[in-house]
Structure formats: C-alpha cells, structure tokens
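Sample pair:
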Amino acid sequence: MAKRKFQLPVAVSGKDAWEVAREISLSAGEILLDWWPKSKEISDKGQNDIVTNVDRECEAHIRATLASHFPEHGIFGEEEKGDDPTTGWTWIIDPIDGTQNYAWGIPCFSIVIALAKDGEVVAGVNFDPINREMFHAARGEGAFLNDKKIQVSEISNFEDVIMVTDPAYGPVAGTTDTLQMLRKIWPSLKTARMIGSSALSISYVAAGRMDIFVHHRLQPYDQAAGIILMEEAGGVITDRQGNRAQLYSDGLIASSSIVHQQFMERTKHLQWRKPSSRSVNPRER
C-alpha cells in the first residue's frame, strides 16, 4: 500500500484514523436507520433547534467507539460538547446533521465525523445512511463519494450557478441577512435550494452537484468534514471576508475558486458580508 502523503494517527487496532472514521460512520448509520420508522423523543434545546433521543444515543456510540480506538484523543460533539477542538488531536462529531429533517421524517440528514490537529482538519467523513452515500477525505489524499473521486463543479458563468443555503440558528438577523442576500443576487442565479443539512449541502458542492454553499454561521461539527472535503475536491471554503475557513469561521462560503470570486464581487456591499457577532472561537472570550 502506498505511503500516505499526510501521516494520520493509527488506532490501537492498527487502522488509521480515516479508516476508523468510515467504519464508525457506518455503524452509527445503522442506529439512525433502526430508529428511522419509529417514534422519537423530541426536545427543544434552543431557538429553532431541537434534539432527539437518537442524537444522544448515536453520539454516545460514536464517542465510546472513538475512545476505544484512540484513548488519548479529545472528542468534541454537538450534544455533549467536550474537549477544545482547536487543541491537540480532537475528533469532531455531529451524530445527526439535519435533526429537524430526521425528526419529521424527511430523508435528508447525515453523520459527521472529522479529526483535527490543533484546529486543522486532517480527515473527515459525512455519511448519508438513507442513500448509502459516504463523502470522505483526508489531507493530501483527495475527496471521495464512496470509492469514486469527486471534484467541485467547473461552471464558470454565475448565471448557471445552483446555490444552496439554510436558515441560521439563533438571532433572526442571520436568516434575514441571508434571505436579503439571496433576493439581491437571485436574478443572476440559475436557482437556489435549502435542504436542511449543512453538512450534506457542502458535500454536494464538493461533489459538483451544486455550485456554491453559503451560511451565516455554523458550528465546528456542522462544517468540519466539509472543510477538508472542499479543499481536497479542488474548491475553496472561506469565511464571509474571504479568509480560509476554520472551525470557528464567521460565515461560510464553499465553491470553486471562480464562482467564489464572482460571489464576493456581487455581494460586497450587502449586509450579509459584514462581520457578525462571532469572529473568534467563543472559548477564547
């Protein structure tokens, strides 16, 4: 087997981190599929945000399995939070990206498992168990959909662009700014979509199914796998100012370089492009 371009950590089982992440996403997917036709316990956990018993069960499974493979690594997840994802080797997990969809029977959701070293994502998996589609990437190895290598769209004309976005959690201004931005550029787009899973949206852009994803503000577990998927698929992924995306970016834009340039030019005077209330890791405040 060829030597990897970036040396990923090896588990106690002898498997590397990329392989372990793929295996765990498959077993976590079985939990989601087992619960899919059943009634779920749904609780509010914030403005326009919910959690189900399946989120918690799935995250517990992923945490326990990761800890058995990499006992020295940190873990940061959506439901239980945990270790600082910007320090050391840390796994970043979202047991269900698209919980609202999952809870209401809409088959558009995924499992995110990513590994970061001092905040730099080095491997990531985003698994859609309904469609058996696994988007995955590792630093220097390329991006893949199952076993097929993927790359971002080659569309260069903005009038042919399919944009995907989603409403923001938290203060309503994030969503209204996004909708205002979409209204302003809508005449020059081919079309736009909101699918309810940011992780899948970014993966679709990495695979060339859509051309650009924008969001007011995401959490590390929403975008961790997407960061490396986009970069390994030949795209760019930045904050709203055009700086390379980090785990705690202020806004997110993912596309090919040429579409990114056109989007930045067309939106430079819009409210959406102005800094939001979060421009740093909230742990540092």
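Residues 17-35 form the longest helix (19 residues).
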